[in-house]
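B., you asked whether I could sanity-check this one before it goes into the benchmark set. Here's the sequence:
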Amino acid sequence: MLHEEEHIPVQIVAGAHDSMILFADGRASCFGTNHFAACPRPAGDSAETPEPVELPACVTSVSLDNEGGAALLIDGSVWVWSQDSGDELADGDSASSVPPGVPVPISGLPPILEVAYRNQAVFALDESGDLWWWGMFHTGGQLVHAGAPRRLDGFPKLSRVVATLAATCGISVDGEAWCSGKNIQGSLGLPDEEVYFDPARRIDELPQVQDIIVDAGFGCAVAMDGSVYCWGRNHLGQLGLGTIDDEIHSATHVEGLPPSKAIDAAWGTACALTEMGRVFCWGGNLYGAVDGGLGMQKVPVPTELAIPGATHIAVGDGFVCALTDAQEVWCAGDPGSDGRTVSFPDYHVPGKLTLK
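And here's what the prediction gave me:
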């Protein structure tokens, strides 16, 4: 029989329209539209509320994208489930016979510490701080295919890795932010006259950072002192600067936030988790999660969400979720993607999910 203390949520991650919750005992639940098998089950097998999914034993963390995901096991091995349109399964065949949603192990990797999956590419950070990738990725000024894991050179030794639509970024062991790939609309915080960055480049305007996220034309980072910086496209106010205007190609301080410790973003919405467990969001507000349903489509200043005692955050396309210190999961936003039923009336107001 499962003991109550084992059913503790320890991680939540979001793709575009789906989210996954990982529990202390290594089990997982997934919810959302699952149009393209972002959850490890058959494509189209949606779940309006969290439903258990089958993953390899002893999963310690997961990364989710619109068309699949990756799981890191306690032994440092990596498993991936995918549409495999870019050979994310690393089997040398982008038309794999493995059905979407079925996890498979990835061979040819050293023990891994962190994995990030995004837009037909998977990135894995090994125990020595080196970065590996496979699938389809913008490098050397062009889109490159790798049917098996290969080293991504040009980065210093890293302690963190994140992936975006056409690039990857990491935090070096001494706290510097580095990025490589395609600098879409200044999303890498680097000069706009240079479209591709290979090898990786450091984001000079940033101090030492503890967290970073880059997504859909913009990025944000949390400095060691808790201050937040953003850069890139700003048509929805996603830089949190109080304005809605053209992109800004240098890291700019976001005013009005308490000291923060984590950042996440997706499709024009950014959220920061403060050191005291408060959640602030800004930018795109399609389903009202950012302003609690007041009707603003664009919220250019950080606005607090009514989520008590948050410990982790996850941002998807039109929804926001958080784990809390009460071992609960709260979400708000896009009906059908926020873990509550499509017919839930107050989808713009954060609420507690029912976990199984």
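One thing to flag: The mean pLDDT is 89. Otherwise nothing jumped out at me.
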